[in-house]
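sorry to bug you again but im stuck and you know this stuff better than me. below you get a single protein, a line of residues and a line of whole numbers that encode the local backbone shape. mainly i need to know what kind of three dimensional shape the backbone takes. anything you notice is useful, everything is just below:

***
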Amino acid sequence: MERWNGNELLLQAAEYFKKPGFRRLFEGLNERYQSLSRLGGTINISALTKEESEALEGFLQMNTPEGKELSLSVSRIRKALKNTRYGQCSLEDIVPLVLDGSMISNKQKKEEKNRELEAFLDSLEKSLQGKPVNSWRPFYSLIIADYNRDRPWAEEHIPLILRAVNSLPAHAKEYERLPVFAAGTTGNPHYFDEGKRSLTYLLYGIRHLFGEAGQKGNSAESRTELLYRGGILKDDLYNWVLCFGIRGYLAGGEFHRGMEAYLKNGEPQILTLQNISLLKSADVMEKKVYVVENPAVFSHIVSRRQGNCACICSGGQLRLSVLILLDLLVRNQVTVYYSGDFDPEGLCIAQKLVSRYGDGLRLWHYDETMYYKSVSSESISDRRLAQLKGITDSRLSAIGILLQEHRHPGYQENMIDCFD
């Protein structure tokens, strides 16, 4: 009697069913296993080809017309297999060999993916022990989304990004330019450039460690401020403030010599964000600082008041350099007197300052009477007026109502004599 060799017969069965006429049948069996975690249910094959019709008719011992749809239960396929010379082989053994791969159910795939994710997170957790950010959990939603979307990217970059977050200059109470920081922590000076996913993680990490920036949201200004909280200077030489009469203090209470020279000479100066990052404190003689929007008004105030006057020009923008300098002054109980243009943009700046400094800020020459004195013939578009929806301070809202009513802005230059 011929001895049955199971492995040899299984290989013969696989070779037989690898014929093109059986391809869709076995793909259907694999799909059933993926869905049910077992071989069961029904397989549908649409529009049989001639090759499929002939192959399946011989195997199933039933009429399988070309061009027709065929619906087969898995039990019917098992029965047909039993009636062949490969009857001692199981479908579960044949299908993977025919398709050149193991059968894996969706459930098994999910379980395997979860195991791999857990292993990845465990390795992250171990690498973060004893660090400022000592767990991946604050980044959970970001990590899961990126791991599911692009696992190779996540496995390569997330550990690198978290190491960078734990190397922020702010941990050592220092400051560093963004490209220098990126190059030092990742080897790529453009690694944290605008628009990159890595920057999102970095900002998230800074927010987790040091709190939200003063300017909320995801504007360029709020991102720059958030980076500053982490000790990172972004566009530091382009981020400047024009000021007069301000004394700066370094660590240990030492005067900032450059600022002191301008102060003694009675001259205005420009401070970059890099300059301001060196300061530990700032102060003014009369505990009040005037903040205006326009350079011409700034020059007028400085030339007329001189003496102990302190003044800052925002230039119509709330650059981070302006805010950080004001933060230092307000911490020293200096009161901010703000005056800006009577237009939607000016009111929005005033609202941000009111929200940031509260009782530490006074509106100066910024009321309804001054609006009529400063009003121009220029018209304000509906698009610009829409910005007034963000105004919540009642004093500013009253001015906003005048702008909506008259649709003409007012400019500080038209009331410059009021600043004598």
User: Anything to note?
Assistant: The chain has a mean pLDDT of 90.
